[in-house]
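Lecture 7 notes: from sequence to structure.

We start with a single chain of 354 residues. Read the sequence below before looking at the structure.
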Amino acid sequence: YDASEAYIRSQAHAGWTLIKMRYDDGGFSGGSTDRPALQKLLDDVRAHKINVIVVYKVDRLTRSLADFAKLVELFDAHQVSFVSITQSFNTTSSMGRLTLNILLSFAQFEREVIGERVRDKIAASKRKGLWMGGNAPMGFIARDKKLVVIPDEAETVRMIFRRYLALGSTGLLLKDLRRRGIKTKKRVWAGKLVGGVWFGKGALTHLLKNRAYIGELVHRGEIYPADHEAIMDRELFEAVQAKLQFNTHTRKLKLRASPYLLTGLLYDSAGNRMSPSCTLKKGIRYRYYVSQGLLQSHDVSTLGEVTRASAPDLEAVVTAFLHQEIKVSGAAFEAMHTHIERVTIRTDHLELRL
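Now the structure, written as tokens:
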């Protein structure tokens, strides 16, 4: 910034004036234009508050060739040029643009090579059993690229594993942990205390599958012995993995046997999952999908356009689409869950994400 300021003052004879605003994006990668100060700069360019942009090096503006082309197009549209004080460029000439494109190609190449080098270093460190950052699992604290056991938390983790085997499901375990007052691990993140909340199903399942508890690290599907102490027996851990796998398989079998073909795929327009429901009238069973927003919340602002819909009607529409447009055949449930990611129901139509 000091060098840029001195350069601007040296151009006082050309009528250059230094503005008070500093567009400093320290800590943000030049590989993306999604940076607060850069976005503020572009807003000021559009508002015609700036005539010349001064940078120390051109890759301080961006290190992406595609982003650079878009920025130059924006600058030209608003009669704004930019200057690199360590490189002589004039963006109004074709030769200057060619030179900039060449330099930015090398800047982008350098960024990609650095990324590859970092990924290789992380993989090599994982193979050596070193902890390469991220949130330390419950039961540990990270010190000098190594996980150190916290005895009290480690005992809580062992208790969670034992209770899962005793209860047999994550749903019952969640209720048990709430009854015991056990919450997630507290951490300091960006100067703020986070965590210490009730476990959700996803967080609990992740904890139960974490191989760090038996002294192992996983990287891209490969398992390596870790350089930290295990906090539980392998027998207990493997018993829990077997139970988790059995429950997952059983749940899939139940879904396949269910008459509700859109189970797990259907949502209302507000993003609430639509769950199977039924009612019996005069000996006839009627099937529906009902929004969880309607079942769990009394706030109408959280509800979608449709809160209840006929299951046979919806399933018939989606099945017809699969047969006619995608030309699929076979079991209806398998066809749904193989080719469709999400179905959103609105007042007058369905939106399918394939």
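The radius of gyration is 29 Å. Keep this in mind for problem set 3.
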